[in-house]
Design a protein that fits this description.
This protein is of the alpha+beta class. It has seven helices and 19 strands. The chain has three domains: about 90 residues, no CATH class; about 130 residues, no CATH class; about 90 residues, OB fold (Dihydrolipoamide Acetyltransferase, E2P) (Beta Barrel), CATH 2.40.50. The model has no long low-confidence stretch (mean pLDDT about 95).
Length: about 325
Amino acid sequence: MVLNLQAVEGFFLVTDDDHIFEVKGVVHPKNRVVAYLRYLPAQDGNRVSSSGVRYRKITSLKEREAYLQGKHNEYLWFDETRGRLLQAVSLNRIAFVLDPVDCLRQFRDMGRHSSSLQQASLDLVQTLTDIAGIEWGAIGLTGSQLVGLASSESDIDLVIYGEKPARKVYSILKERFHAIEDLDWYAGKLLDKHVTFRWGENPRWRDVLRKVESDKVLQGIFGGYEFFIRMVKSSDEVGCEYEDFEIHNEGMLTVKCHVTDDHDSIFTPCAYGVLCDGLGNLRKLVSYRGRFTEQVSKGMDVEAKGRLESVTDRRSGEEFSQLMLGENWDDYLIPL
């Protein structure tokens, strides 16, 4: 049994039967952690852990859920307060908790024994700490490097914890991206590949998405490796508990609205305040997927497709609607 677990976005969990889950969000139910399956043990897997277990990476949300329904439905949980099935790991099934900040510290201690990818990751963190004046303890290394399953195609996945250091880094990158040595935007064929990876083949929006993705500063190329920086608030900064909200699924919806607030657009989960003439109670666009960060800005008119949810704040009784983005492959958020 894992007690006093403080696993948040960026952490990974290894279960007692060797499945590896990525933690989603900052607040969680009392007896389990909402986390999505990322690596499953498979004899034909092309990645091998230090303990000799072979793994296969699984990216599609539908594929993850189908696998769990067929073989491990104990990791599927119907949340009555959300009215939907979630991937989640009970505390008593967790064998190891992998901490991004601790991983980065271990890589730093390795010195000259680091791999090329590890050294590039360390160099990027050194660059960010130098230019933004934040502590190493605010930054972690997540993704395949955290779980010890990096391959030749792996990239640099960083996570910055805490609103203050996150905003410092973002502000510097927004102002000085081009002036930072070894840092490059997505461009050309690499931009095309990145847009396809993020959004699939979508000819209707492709030109718009190329422009949006090319302007983002929490992603790009450093030292020859692709990187993505995830910003995560602390639980104190989020200021709520998982059980504070009751949410009902109202079905899929496409809306046009006006962005009134982008203050939390850089975080995971990200949120945009909106006004919608056709749906007056719609207050927010929300996503737990990194591709929706930095997507639109305050003052923009946008079109979005996602799952409409009615939300009740149990603390105040306030009721409002939000559009959850990224749960389906064809969800989108586009400036008009």
